[in-house]
Amino acid sequence: MTMISSTEQTTNMTSLLQKIALRLRGNVIRIQPRRPIKGAVLLSYITLPFIAGEETLGAHTNRWECREIARIFAELGYAVDVVDWESERIPKRDYDIWFDIRPDMEKIAQKVHGDPYKIFHATGTYWKFQNEASRARLNAVAARRGARLSSGRFQKPGRSVEIADLITMLGNDFTASTYPLAGKRVVHIPISTTHIFPSPETKDFEAARRGFIWLGGAGMAHKGLDLVLEAFAAMPEFTLTAFGKGDADFINAYHKELYETPNISYKGQVDIGGREFAEAASRSIGLVFPSCSEGCAGSVIECMHVGLIPIISRESSVDVDGSGIVLRENTKDEIEKEVRRLASLPAAELASRATAAWAYARERHTREAFSDAFAALARDVDRLIKERRTAIL
Question: Under 8 Å CB-to-CB from 104, ≥6 apart: which residues?
Fold first, then answer.
């Protein structure tokens, strides 16, 4: 029988009470500024970081980022209403700014009162690109394995790009290329990270050169784990440690590779800041992540922060700044080739690349970098709101 500690019981009870309180408030988190209110913002993202403890912020970058977005708007003098992006229950108040991550903002447009400045926050690629890419991955697995998976990463169709006044985007120029922007203004905001790590310069690169990691979430075929498993099953001289919450159908289709292949170890979901991930990273030289569609893959950024050299797809939407390898074809054969090529480099070059990956992530992808970029954007939008009000008067 599994025993639950008093601390865990208290945490669970607190979480339950917070969820009940949220329901009683109409599923809205209301944040008031400390200065006179100049207007209101509808922030359609996630409410979790406002009702759960600090420990939840380390599980995904979007939790801290959503909270920071609300804080920045509140500091500018706006009252902020936060709702979950899939909710259609919108408070009945006039909004000056509407910030949303849903690809179908038009679905609730009639429920958003006032004449708000509309910001679509693109956390992934364009829905049509992503859906086609994810479907193609599932079809490829079916052709190779005879297994019809249902665990893709499909987005709702929608016209958020068309109705938005401004698009903020976590990804790079590749991400932008998937959207029908038609002259719309796009502001790139650097994705943050959940953890930072010391420089990898003291690592034993000679000992680590044959170790690799895959780190991802749901939609394992979408994120290329099928290709990585097939590649490493054919390379017994290299080791692969796979981390991520599994899809049952994928695990069933790749059970042999995940559980019965000596050089492959599947560890499931992991705490990036914990000992298990740190030990695996110390034994590994690189990350292999051939996803078919991402809006700046957070797992790649996390691994660069720990000093792993990225071998990634262009569709991962991460600029590796010459420290890593960007796959051209995303095939099993190409993965094998690039893994062998990276592992064959002198230890000094491996150290140089790993340190460069770490330094790039430290410079571009931190909470401070996200906050600075978003604060600059928010100030600009605030200026536009003032100009709009002046023009009306």
Answer: 156, 157, 158, 159, 160
